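Workshop exercise sheet. Pairs work together: one partner reads the sequence aloud, the other fills in the structure field after running the prediction. Swap roles for the next sheet.
Pair: D.N. / O.F.
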Amino acid sequence: MPMAVMGPADHGRTCQFAMHQRLQLCLPEAPNSGYRWQGAEALGADAAVCCLSSDYAPPVSGAVGGRGLRCWVFEARAPGVAASHLRLQRPGGGPVADRFALTIHVVG
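Structure field:
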Protein backbone atom coordinates (compact mmCIF):
# COMPACT_ATOMS: atom_id res chain seq x y z
CA MET A 1 0.00 0.00 0.00
CA PRO A 2 1.60 3.32 -1.05
CA MET A 3 2.38 5.93 1.60
CA ALA A 4 0.25 9.08 1.37
CA VAL A 5 2.26 12.32 1.40
CA MET A 6 0.71 15.54 2.70
CA GLY A 7 1.87 19.08 3.29
CA PRO A 8 0.68 22.65 3.84
CA ALA A 9 -1.86 22.49 0.99
CA ASP A 10 -3.73 19.77 2.92
CA HIS A 11 -4.60 22.08 5.84
CA GLY A 12 -8.18 21.49 6.99
CA ARG A 13 -8.52 18.27 5.03
CA THR A 14 -10.43 15.20 6.17
CA CYS A 15 -9.11 11.96 4.68
CA GLN A 16 -9.75 8.25 4.88
CA PHE A 17 -7.07 5.59 5.42
CA ALA A 18 -7.12 1.82 5.47
CA MET A 19 -5.63 -0.17 8.32
CA HIS A 20 -1.80 -0.17 8.24
CA GLN A 21 -1.67 2.58 5.63
CA ARG A 22 1.05 5.14 6.30
CA LEU A 23 1.01 8.91 6.00
CA GLN A 24 4.00 11.22 5.73
CA LEU A 25 3.22 14.79 6.77
CA CYS A 26 5.87 17.44 6.01
CA LEU A 27 5.59 21.09 7.06
CA PRO A 28 8.12 23.93 6.72
CA GLU A 29 9.99 24.75 9.93
CA ALA A 30 12.94 26.97 10.84
CA PRO A 31 14.10 25.79 14.29
CA ASN A 32 16.77 28.53 14.41
CA SER A 33 13.92 31.04 14.71
CA GLY A 34 12.69 29.25 17.81
CA TYR A 35 9.39 28.33 16.14
CA ARG A 36 8.63 24.61 16.00
CA TRP A 37 5.53 22.62 15.16
CA GLN A 38 3.69 21.55 18.30
CA GLY A 39 0.70 19.27 18.72
CA ALA A 40 1.67 16.38 16.41
CA GLU A 41 1.97 14.12 19.42
CA ALA A 42 -1.80 14.49 19.91
CA LEU A 43 -2.41 12.83 16.53
CA GLY A 44 0.07 10.06 17.32
CA ALA A 45 -1.39 9.51 20.79
CA ASP A 46 -4.80 8.61 19.37
CA ALA A 47 -5.54 4.86 19.32
CA ALA A 48 -6.48 5.02 15.61
CA VAL A 49 -3.11 6.41 14.50
CA CYS A 50 0.44 5.85 15.71
CA CYS A 51 3.40 8.19 15.14
CA LEU A 52 6.33 6.12 13.84
CA SER A 53 8.88 8.92 13.44
CA SER A 54 9.54 12.66 13.49
CA ASP A 55 12.55 14.11 11.66
CA TYR A 56 13.83 17.51 10.59
CA ALA A 57 15.51 17.98 7.19
CA PRO A 58 17.52 21.22 6.95
CA PRO A 59 17.20 23.49 3.90
CA VAL A 60 18.95 22.15 0.83
CA SER A 61 20.71 25.46 0.23
CA GLY A 62 22.28 25.33 3.69
CA ALA A 63 21.35 28.98 4.27
CA VAL A 64 21.57 29.99 7.90
CA GLY A 65 18.08 30.55 9.27
CA GLY A 66 16.49 28.94 6.22
CA ARG A 67 13.36 26.84 6.45
CA GLY A 68 13.68 23.10 6.26
CA LEU A 69 10.99 20.48 6.67
CA ARG A 70 9.62 18.77 9.77
CA CYS A 71 8.32 15.36 8.65
CA TRP A 72 6.30 12.83 10.62
CA VAL A 73 5.32 9.32 9.57
CA PHE A 74 2.03 8.01 10.97
CA GLU A 75 0.40 4.60 10.58
CA ALA A 76 -3.31 3.80 10.74
CA ARG A 77 -3.59 1.18 13.48
CA ALA A 78 -7.26 0.83 14.46
CA PRO A 79 -10.67 1.87 13.13
CA GLY A 80 -11.67 5.30 14.37
CA VAL A 81 -11.00 9.00 13.95
CA ALA A 82 -7.82 10.92 14.73
CA ALA A 83 -7.64 14.72 14.58
CA SER A 84 -4.66 16.99 14.86
CA HIS A 85 -4.41 20.75 15.28
CA LEU A 86 -0.75 21.69 14.97
CA ARG A 87 0.63 25.13 15.66
CA LEU A 88 3.97 26.70 14.74
CA GLN A 89 4.98 28.31 18.00
CA ARG A 90 7.93 28.85 20.31
CA PRO A 91 8.17 26.40 23.21
CA GLY A 92 6.40 27.82 26.23
CA GLY A 93 3.77 29.69 24.24
CA GLY A 94 3.60 33.10 22.68
CA PRO A 95 2.25 34.07 19.27
CA VAL A 96 1.30 31.33 16.82
CA ALA A 97 3.01 31.84 13.45
CA ASP A 98 1.02 29.21 11.54
CA ARG A 99 -1.55 26.43 12.01
CA PHE A 100 -2.28 23.06 10.40
CA ALA A 101 -5.33 20.83 10.97
CA LEU A 102 -5.95 17.31 9.71
CA THR A 103 -8.63 14.70 10.43
CA ILE A 104 -8.05 11.04 9.60
CA HIS A 105 -10.80 8.41 9.42
CA VAL A 106 -9.35 4.89 9.69
CA VAL A 107 -11.54 2.17 8.21
CA GLY A 108 -11.11 -1.50 9.06
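Discussion prompt: DSSP finds one helix and eight strands in the chain. What would you look at next?
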